[in-house]
Amino acid sequence: MRRILFALAGVAFCVGSAAAQSADEVVSKYLHAIGGMEKIQAVHSLRRVGKFVGGGGFEAAIVQENKRPNRVREEFVLQDLTGINAYDGTTGWKIEPWDGKKDAESLSEEEAKSLLEDSDFDGPLVDYRKKGNKVEYAGHDEVEGTDTYKLKVTLPNGTVQHYYVDADSYVPIKIDTRRMIRGGEREYETIVGDYKQVAGCYLPYSFETNVKGSSDKSKYIYDTIEANVPMDDTRFQRPAAKGPGGSAAKGQEVRP
Q1: d(CA 166, CA 4)
Q2: What are phi and psi of 151, to 5 degrees?
Q3: C-beta neighbour count of 137 within 10 angstroms
Q4: Number of domains in the chain
Q5: CA distances to 35, 132, 143, 169, 191 from 177, in Å
Q6: How far apart are CA 127 and CA 118, in angstroms?
Q7: pLDDT at position 255, please?
Q8: Across the strands, what pairs with 154?
Q9: Dihedrals φ, ψ of 40, to 5°?
Q10: Spatial contact of 203 and 226, defined as CB atoms under 8 Å apart
Q11: How many other CB atoms are there within 10 angstroms of residue 98's CB atom?
Q12: Which residues pair with 71 in a beta bridge?
């Protein structure tokens, strides 16, 4: 039976094998499993450093920085060039230097939705009602031989996710995501694994994702995750670019 790499030394769970009766019960046990609300809320920033592995062994260095409440900056380093996606809580932007571009640009619709999801510091299950998320219990399912509880999560922007929560450890091991982009539906599958403790919380270090039905998979593997790293707000803000007449170009406001 497939088992996620799950280092929970010294932590005991009284979860049993009884079927969960509600989404709130599964969410509550999930919060307990990853460290509890006190430890979750004590983390104010995260810096993840690792690599992206694409088809054919293609690799690039990656850095993701998150800061409460909803700031995110993602860097993708390839051949000494650094691409950036970032969101400062209001404005989303990107820099794609591959064709000699240096100035920040607006995000596409799909990029904006994905980045907003990445900006949720604790993920959609933590304080989900306050965030306007809807969480429903959707029964049992198996993921590569592992029994899971299935939660349907609907975000305010219309994205629907199905979280497959390991029935023993109560951490997600798979996430299916469905987004509407320009009137068309796009579906993705993500396998989540290699949980390790960071500042008293258990976080995944590995993500394997693909378009649903495709065998072309991409992996995000983090070597280090640091908590409570000092981060200035300016790291997430769109850098000024001189537009016509010498005025600074404005960023694109991104709404949940």
Answers
A1: 9
A2: -115, 135
A3: 18
A4: 1
A5: 25, 17, 15, 22, 11
A6: 16
A7: 57
A8: 134, 160
A9: -60, -45
A10: no
A11: 9
A12: 67
Q: What gap in Å lies between CA 215 and CA 199, rounded to an integer?
A: 35
Other C-beta atoms lying within 10 Å of the C-beta of residue 249? 16
Phi (first) and psi of residue 115, to 5 degrees: -70, -35
- Bridge partners of 81, per DSSP, are 78
Query: Is position 246 within any domain?
Result: yes
Residue ranges of the chain whose pLDDT lies below 50:
1-20, 245-249
Q: Pull the structure tokens for residue 37.
A: 């609300």
Beta bridge partners of 86: 73, 93
- Average model confidence (pLDDT) across the chain: 87
Give the number of other CB atoms < 10 A from CB of residue 184: 7
Whether residue 126 contacts residue 41, with contact meaning beta carbons closer than 8 Å, is answered with no
Query: In the prediction, which pLDDT does 5 show?
Result: 34
Burial class of residue 37 (count of CB atoms within 10 Å of its CB; 0-12, 13-18, 19+): middle
CB 94 within 8 A of CB 86: yes
CA-based end-to-end distance of the chain: 39
Tokens linked to 94: 């990107």
The residue among 95, 94, 87 whose CA lies nearest residue 69 is 87
From residue 52, alpha-carbon distances to 10, 40, 45, 62, 223 in Å are: 32, 26, 21, 6, 11
Extended beta strands in 146-240, E state:
146-154, 160-166, 172-181, 184-198, 201-211, 218-227
At residue 221, the pLDDT reads 98
Domain that holds residue 141: 23-250
- pTM here is 0.85
